[in-house]
Structures are given as structure tokens and as C-alpha cells.
Amino acid sequence: MEVINATGRRKSAIARVYLAEGKGKITVNKRDVAEYFKTDQLVYIVKQPLTEVGLEGNFDIKVNISGGGQSGQAEALRLGIARAIVKISEEHRPALKVKKFLTRDSRVVERKKPGRPKARKRFQFSKR
Length: 128
Known about the structure:
Elements: E1 4-10, E2 13-21, E3 26-28, E4 31-32, H1 33-36, H2 40-53, E5 59-66, H3 70-88, H4 93-98
Parallel strand pairs: 3-5
Antiparallel strand pairs: 1-2, 2-5, 3-4
Helix pairs in contact: 2-3
């Protein structure tokens, strides 16, 4: 089997995923996934698509991730892995689609507006 690649995005994080047959090793920016994502919750989020279709331990995954924070990167990686799994076999699409792993979460930070401290926050009002 050749290497399958896919892209996942979330907030300002971009994950380029390369999936190949192997022993289940996940490498993120040349580091192990548990070393890169410090909390177990983020590692769990990354592995969700694999466990959902029962493919954990079947593929080696190499990932280049940039931008965003920890949770945004983990969710971008989840989307990238799910898309790569669907490229391998279309029969996994319904199971991943039901769990919304193939849906790109388009929510991003709202821009700061002029004359305000943040996007919607206003400076304290003083009557006198």
C-alpha cells in the first residue's frame, strides 16, 4: 500500500497527515503523539477515528502540524486522520460521519473591532 495523505484544519491549526501500513505508531512533528500532546484527553481525541472503525494498530501515521494551540491542533489532526481513513476505504465513511469526524469545524476567533478592547467587549461606561 502506498502512503495516503490528507489535510485537517481547525481554528488556525493545519495538520498534514501521512498514513501508511504499520504497527500503529503516531508521530507528530518528529515526536511521539503522547510526548507532543501532554494530556491524555488530547491523545484520546487524536485516536478517536481509528478506534471508531477498529483500525488502531494497523497504520503508522506521520503528521506535520502548524499553527493554533493544543486543542485546535488535536482536532485538526482528528479530521485529517478521518479523511485519510475514508481515502483508504469508503465503507468507513458512515461510521465516521455519524460521529461528525468528517465535519470541518469552521468556528474561528472573531476579529478585534476598532474602538473596543476586544471583539465585542466595550470599555467601562461612565455617566459622569
